[in-house]
Write a structure and sequence with these properties.
This protein is 9% helix and 60% strand. The protein is built from one helix and 13 strands.
């Protein structure tokens, strides 16, 4: 988690420097007036926080039980390319996408039968009795967006909307459970990427005003590899903060 926060901080610093070099101009309306500094914002930084869920196939509905609370956090550094003098632009970037899903009295069991194959399934926690148990994934994500801005002079103001596609590669996946042993809290963490889809493709959309937007995302890929676990399709909705 510390590495992810460090990457996000570095992204924000880089975005600020780029904006300072390319986004400012000085306008003087009269001799007696002070110079007014304006900037042509291009939404270099996107920070998203929202609710996450899994869309389950009918056969998996009774097998996978999740708690209502689950979340996703994404942070991207993008570069915006205006399409001539229109209100449209194309943007591409890079960032981190993380998702945490809390299981309802279930744990992830994995099996490896060698030649016979391997798989991962969520099953009832009838032995350990975890107080809390979550499944977390982290992807290095590249967002691509077609954007619309009603105010092309200052994109920090006015209506804005975007549709796009995110392409990601798996950085890591783990489960973490909290249990009590004789009054002492114990955390069990198991990391594995063997059963998880190595690539992530998601359709995205945003709509908002000024620096605040509502975003939605629906994956085109499943959580697990084919025949390596239940068919679960991630989706999320939440708030997006943009700027610079």
């Amino acid at each position: 988690m510390r590495k992810i926060l460090a990457v996000i901080a570095l992204m924000v610093v880089c975005a600020t420097r780029v904006s300072a070099q390319n986004g400012y101009s000085i306008n003087v309306s009269s001799k007696d007036s002070l110079p007014q500094i304006t900037k042509s914002a291009r939404d270099f930084v996107l920070v998203q926080f929202g609710y996450a869920s899994w869309n389950k196939e009918t056969s998996d509905t009774a097998k996978v039980n999740t708690k209502p609370f689950a979340y996703t956090f994404n942070a991207f550094l993008c570069y915006d390319f205006p399409i001539k003098k229109s209100k449209l632009s194309f943007a591409a970037g890079l960032g981190i996408s993380t998702t945490s899903i809390y299981m309802d009295k279930q744990v992830l069991y994995t099996s490896d039968t060698g030649v016979g194959g391997y798989d991962a399934n969520f099953m009832k926690d009838s032995i350990t009795g975890y107080k809390r148990y979550k499944f977390n994934t982290a992807y290095l994500q590249a967002p691509f967006e077609l954007r619309y801005f009603s105010n092309i002079n200052n994109r920090n103001k006015g209506f804005k909307a975007a549709i796009g596609l995110q392409v990601g590669t798996l950085l890591g996946a783990h489960t973490k459970g909290l249990r009590s042993v004789e009054g002492t809290n114990i955390k069990d963490k198991v990391s594995t990427k063997r059963y998880i889809s190595p690539w992530n493709f998601a359709a995205t959309a945003r709509v908002g005003w000024g620096n605040f937007s509502i975003f939605g995302s629906y994956n085109l890929t499943n959580v697990f590899k084919d025949n390596a676990g239940p068919t679960l399709t991630p989706m999320s909705v939440g708030i997006c903060l943009t700027g610079l």
